[in-house]
Amino acid sequence: MTFETLKGTRDYAFIEAKVKEEMFSTLKTEFMKNGFRPFQTPHIEYYDTLTHKYDETAEIVQEIFNVQDRGERKLGLRYDLTIPLCRFLAQHTKSLKLPFRRFHIGSAFRDGPVKSGRLREFEQCDCDVVGLKGQDIEIELMELYYRCYTKLGIDIIVELNSNKILKGALLQSGFKEDELDTGVLIIDKFKKIGEENVIKELVEKGINTEISKRAVSLLTQNSLQELEEKATDELLKEGCEELQKLVRGCEELSIPHRVNVTMSRGHSYYTGNIWEVYDTKGRVKSSIGAGGRYDKGIGNYIGSSEDIPACGISFGVVGMMEILLDIEKKGQENNSGGISKILVVPLNLELITDSIKIANSIREEEMSNVEIFYGCKLKKAFDYAQYLGVEDLVIYGLKDKEQSQYVRKNLVSGEERVINIK
Asked: Residue 153 class from Cβ within 10 Å (0-12 exposed, 13-18 middle, 19+ buried)?
């Protein structure tokens, strides 16, 4: 039998697993500093929960991994972390006190086309706040974003826009309501294809040429302030005002940012300000984080006509891992993970129990990661130590036991010290 991973899945071993664990540990620490609570939900949900508010022909429904239990209940694997959040909120509406802050790190599954950067099983990392209106909480989220990436050693810039600006600008230019989805999707290509091709595609989709040019002209003002001055549509005015508040907050907190009023994200889902995060060094070209405000998302899901204020940030785990692995692997000769810092080498099997005690003593005193080598051969121990990239070797033989000591050798300097066992 040939053993291999399922297409669209992957293993994380040694250095990759270490980097991922360290990344999540750093993120969790920063999340909790801001009062975000850990949150977990089952990987399996009722199929009807996952498809609620979706048509059976929707792409996301087609990508659900279908599961059936022994009771022949129709189930599915979750495809994101938002639907389980909505289900939880619907279950606990009466008992839950708002605002509700949660962070959720977990796997999601999609049975869709496998391509670069898109897996069938992948991890998501989300922070959401439910129950707070306005830009104050959005500013806090931007600061949390910046702090998290900085702690990880990733230089970022946050790209900002508002879906209200996009839709308002199109309406002001003469777009009809049923043309907004098409218009927003094409406008979003502006960075890739440029002004001329955007207008060309709009016209090809049946949008009047003059209206297309008017929309592009409005969305290519030199500044957000100039766009606000030209705004006559109420939705556009509102979007400009809200985005200005977010921009001022970023400026006051020295958060690297830029405004891109042609950028769209989840135009049918996000109701206000939106954001994407990019690596300033260009190691990953696509965004490594994104999110926005979705005041209608939860209400629409649970069947409420009232807005339920919500906004969130999501971290692009795949892109971040690519950057962090690049940083970690520089200067390393192997893929062992660099976990162990000290290797204890008993030279006789009779010394194993005492060696465990020595290792535990060093772990407690130095708060260091200590591994024991059971080969009892010094040459093999040196080879293994080189593979691990350990700093010190602790050598313990029968004569050392008689004298209640061991030898500690620094593998970089070559210095040896005799340590008395307490």
From this structure: exposed
Question: Quick one: 342-420 is in which CATH superfamily?
Answer: Anticodon-binding domain (3.40.50.800)
Where are the extended beta strands (E) located within 268-335?
273-279, 289-293, 310-315
Phi first, then psi, for residue 278 (nearest 5°) are: -130, 145
Q: Which residues pair with 293 in a beta bridge?
A: 311
Spell out the domain ranges in the chain.
15-329, 342-420
- Asked if 166 and 264 count as a contact pair (C-beta separation under 8 A), the reply is yes
Please answer whether residues 175 and 275 qualify as being in contact, where contact means their C-beta atoms are separated by less than 8 angstroms.
Answer: no
Buried b (16+ CB within 10 A) or exposed e, 304-327: eeeebbbbbbbbbbbbbbebbbee
Q: For 329-350, how does the pLDDT look when each residue is reduced to its tens digit (9 = 90+)?
A: 765 555 566 788 999 999 999 9
Q: Which residue has the tokens 């162990």?
A: 340
The pLDDT of residue 337: 66
Alpha helices in 34-76 (DSSP H): 47-51, 59-62
CA dist 168 and 147 (Å) reads: 32
**pLDDT at 371 > cutoff 80:** yes
Are 15-329 and 342-420 the same fold in CATH? Answer: no
Partners of residue 419 on adjacent β-strands: 406
Please tell us whether the domain made up of 15-329 is placed in CATH 1.20.1600.10.
Answer: no
Q: How confident is the model at residue 1 (pLDDT cuts 50, 70, 90)?
A: confident
CA-CA distance, 226 to 192, in Å (whole number)?
24
What pTM did the predictor assign?
A: 0.88
pLDDT tens-digit profile of 78-112? 999 999 999 999 999 889 899 999 999 999 999 98
